[in-house]
Amino acid sequence: QQILLFSQRLYLRERPHDVPDQDRFLWSIPIVLVRQDRMNFHNTTPMVWMMKEREIEIANLPDEKHFIIVNPEEIGPFPVNYDAENWKLLVEFLQTDERTKIPVYTRAKLLHDAWNLAYAGDLNITIALNMTLFLRNERDYLAWDPVFTMIDHIGKHIDDLLVCRQFEVSATCSYNRLRLAGKRFQYYVKMLLTPLYEDLGEVPQPGESEGTTHLRNTAKIFLCQAGYEPCIDEANKEFHKWMESENPDEGNPVANQYICPVFKWRMFTEWLFGLERFINFPKTRKRSERTYLLKTLAGCPRYSGKIEYLLNLTLLQRDGNFSDSDLYLILSMLAGSSSGYNTLFDYLVSNWDEIKKNFADKPMLWNSIVASATGSFKSHTGLELVSQLYRKRQSEFGNADFIVEKSLRNIKVEIEWTDKNIPAMERWLLANDKE
Q1: How is 396-416 classified by DSSP, letter by letter?
Q2: pTM for the full model?
């Protein structure tokens, strides 16, 4: 038996963690606890309450050879962190056939907590990666749900590390350790999801649950994003049915899930076809379809040439087919992808005078352009790029000056996370690739 220390503090996932007076936040928290040596998930009576206390001690808990699970089934709306040894015991147990003794909601919560804590910087990322190992044998859709959020968050973070700038020697960039970590993560995603997708099968089975159907569809979407060729080929085949239709502006016969992979991985021809459909979009069709098409045109491409073409139309030519609302949407989507904000940044630098002139009477749009171009970098290279632009144009930003200063602060915070976690992730991915 041992005595354990329980503490509480404000949890902040998104960076920067600059909420004032964080130490003043305290809550009354029920401590519902399951112990490995007396596993019972039916008793939800709290052992004790933390009555707005910073710390409490609880005695008569199992020894260090047995794990505990706090807040099972997510009884309370808060994540739970453990010491490294308890996480290790959970990782080992979840990889055994006995893992189903832990209900699926709790298995999902453990994975969810590990990844969100790691993303916030509160947990070693290798522990969060270890928590994914049991998924090799997991087929319950509820347990997989947190994984897709993790792939999305981590994927967007490391995407910035995969971009080779024009001034970088290609060989140096290609073998940069952080860049290799990004590529290995993409490979791990495919290795994790491919067996799942193949086990589920491409076609829904009679009588299967909605959860299984949802899991198949989601796995397919993320595999397509990761470059899974069978998925991309299928998407391209479906998309060409639209291209070959007699009246392509009358309606879109392609399922939404196929559009983004085509715009991301296929050629300029397909993307330009989509842009033409947006420009010729009939007023009789649903506006939501037009919005979705524009989101994918701006947010999906990884080839800068497609994005530059769109920026020529909207930022320089000020094409009348694009409203101010459309431009806000485009900028928002570009800020969410490394190809998007890298290309937008380069485009702003190269066409500074003309863009600033075009938006002189639209200060809010100008601010949005600057924010989207500078605010999403997560690497030392990005910090240097934005710093150089700020030094060169500091007197010309106008009301957007504070936006660049905020971007620089945020990039520095993201770099701290990158420097701490990405090398550790790269080592873990390399070690587990051998397995």
Answers
A1: G-GGGHHHHHHHHHHHHHHHH
A2: 0.89
